[in-house]
Design brief:
4 domains, GMP Synthetase, Chain A, domain 3, disordered N terminus, about 10% strand, lipid binding, Rossmann fold, alpha/beta, DNA-binding, 8 strands, five-stranded parallel sheet, Helicase, Ruva Protein, domain 3
């Protein structure tokens, strides 16, 4: 390029640089979950290129996004820019106040119509709580009057607002979402599909999304969503009314069975037996079964071994608690669905302090919005701190370094004393580093204070432990799962 101050003075060069940036953004779009891309990368604009300095200038709409993108994505953006503009290319992030919003990528395709335009409910649901067992990963949309139900789906009980389009995806659930989409494309490809994870992580949202997409593809498909406790209640009523054979025939004629929270069949041998025969009939007919649970199949107590073996025969996928970026994206999405203005620093504050699940995040968001409404004030960081003061104080009180040490020691079957002892055997060092990591993540203690609690260790030792565990859990699924289990246990 000629040695002018900026390529944006030359229209052809400016267009070329813009094309390069769009190519970088397209690569990022393929690497980053859709909601995270939309939240963080898409708002960036290309401000120009300085040939003499080999500097690509990117603008962010506000300081919060600028800091976050530079920290989380800066190195990857610089790497992609160097590949397109030359190996010495550097990237500068700047505020772009008043800039017209030029997308970082072409406008995404408009979402396809969702599956069910109404919520279908069977006759037996009349006394049941709407959406019983449903995770809070979906917006609580007001219930619409049901349209005339088609005979083949009048008992599906799918919630029309729970779709793939409004399911926020991140590292913690992208595998589950990908397999769910594959089940829609090729029913029976993973049979059963067994999704497990803690409460409020989106399991129910995801299986409703499968059901809605399934019916959209084939409006005459026989689909049924049922919570395991409701399945048990149905069986009891059928026995009382002597209609067990009719109910059995109905379930065995389904094209897609979505059964939520299978752990609720624990200790119910008669219902487990009926479910076993239904499972085998659907499996033999190559009909799709999707099951959710709060734990791994082999860890469910009170369930017959033959059922556990059936669950193990399919694909088992974990849904983990959302990472920080995904929690921020979820909050912004929920606020958008409620037509509420949520500043990004407030979303970050809530996401930083509430980590366990989506339901907790949504509850905190609703509290902040309601608090602002009652006081007729806009949502600000100070107002959010005031609204959530008791909740945050409760979280801080419940978790201490000592509790973390004992919980981690019990989990890895070592002595608590070894947490602050001097031994450096591998089977002790890893749990000790995990405990330090959790102490920093789950308490308000400083690095020196945490080090003091681990036998007077220097703060640099704690910092090393944090960096090591942060890096390892990104590449070691088993370690990542263990830490999530510990986090859930500590937040108990």
């Amino acid at each position: 390029m000629p040695h002018s101050r900026s390529a944006e003075h030359d229209p052809s060069q400016a267009a070329q640089v813009q094309d390069h940036w769009l190519a970088c953004a397209a690569r990022l779009e393929a690497e980053v979950p859709a909601q995270l891309f939309k939240t963080w990368i898409k708002p960036l604009v290309c401000l120009g290129y300085e040939p003499e300095e080999q500097l690509l200038r990117l603008g962010a709409p506000n300081q919060f996004k600028l800091n976050w993108v530079r920290t989380q994505f800066g190195s990857r953006i610089a790497e992609l820019a160097a590949g397109l503009l030359g190996p010495q290319t550097r990237v500068a992030f700047e505020l772009a106040p008043g800039q017209p919003s030029r997308s970082a990528a072409p406008t995404p395709r408009a979402p396809q119509p969702t599956a069910a335009e109404t919520r279908f409910a069977g006759p037996e649901a009349a006394g049941a709580a709407p959406g019983q067992g449903a995770d809070a990963a979906a917006a609580q949309a007001p219930e619409q009057p049901p349209a005339p139900a088609q005979p083949v789906v009048d008992r599906s009980r799918l919630r029309a607002e729970l779709t793939f389009e409004n399911f926020v995806t991140g590292k913690s659930n992208q595998m589950a979402r990908a397999t769910a989409l594959q089940v829609v494309d090729r029913p029976g490809s993973y049979n059963p599909l067994f999704l497990y994870g803690g409460v409020g992580l989106g399991k129910t949202h995801l299986i409703h999304a499968v059901g809605n997409a399934f019916v959209e593809r084939n409006p005459r498909a026989k689909v049924r969503y049922i919570h395991a406790q409701e399945y048990f209640d149905e069986m009891v009523r059928a026995i009382q009314r002597k209609t067990s054979e009719d109910l059995k025939h109905y379930y065995q004629s389904l094209d897609l069975l979505l059964i939520d929270d299978i752990q609720f069949l624990s200790g119910k041998p008669r219902t487990q037996e009926e479910f076993f025969y239904t499972f085998d009939a659907l499996y033999a007919a190559r009909k799709q079964i999707i099951i959710t649970c709060d734990t791994y199949p082999k860890e469910i107590s009170g369930i017959e071994e033959r059922l556990i073996s059936r669950f193990d025969s399919g694909l088992i996928v974990a849904i983990e608690p959302p990472e920080l970026e995904m929690r921020v994206a979820i909050l912004l999405k929920k606020a958008e669905q409620q037509s509420a203005q949520l500043p990004e620093d407030v979303a970050f504050f809530i996401a930083k302090h509430l980590r366990s699940n989506v339901r907790e995040l949504e509850g905190a968001l609703l509290r902040v919005i309601a608090y602002a409404g009652f006081r007729n004030k806009p949502v600000t960081l100070d107002l959010a701190k005031e609204a959530l003061e008791d909740l945050l104080a409760l979280n801080r009180r419940q978790i201490s370094v000592e509790v973390i040490q004992k919980t981690v020691a019990d989990f890895f079957k070592i002595k608590v004393a070894e947490m602050y002892g001097k031994r450096r055997h591998a089977h002790i060092v890893l749990p000790r580093q995990i405990a330090m990591y959790l102490a920093k993540e789950l308490t308000q203690k400083s690095l020196p204070e945490i080090g003091e609690g681990f036998g007077g260790r220097d703060h640099t030792t704690v910092l090393h432990a944090m960096r090591k565990i942060t890096e390892q859990r990104q590449h070691d699924p088993e370690l990542n799962h263990q830490i999530h289990v510990l986090e859930q246990t500590l937040r108990g």
